[in-house]
Amino acid sequence: MKIKALGHVVLYVTNVEKIADFYRDVLGFREIARQKRMAFFSTGRTHHELLLIEIGEAHQKSGKLETGLYHIGFKIGDTVKDLKNALLDLKKAGVTITGGADHNVTQGIYIKDPDGNEIELYVDISKEWKKNPKILLNSPKQLHLD
To answer: What is the rounded CA–CA span in Å between residue 38 and residue 56?
Structure first.
């Protein structure tokens, strides 16, 4: 397996409106989709390079979730076969798989590095986001790699 690109960063934020407006209005990042608790940004290179997910002040104060890095996504290929091969490599290396998801335009496997940072290793499976960026707002589905 080989990393092809740093695909995206996902941040937990307390207030998606405030933080999304900052990334859009102050930093000039192009917003491509937003709904109640999520905002997606892209330079156009890929479907999203930044995703903000609102956890709210209550979660932050309760200690259940903290603002900051949720996970980083590394693109490892363009086919489901690439993802299956990566899964085999990870299992051979003794890496614990913490999850998997079909995000409609990507499919990914989730792992943690030795320090506990979450990583998504994903492949692009569709370019539909170029015509319809709102597809990113669709709920993920269970990943089936069998």
So the answer is: 12
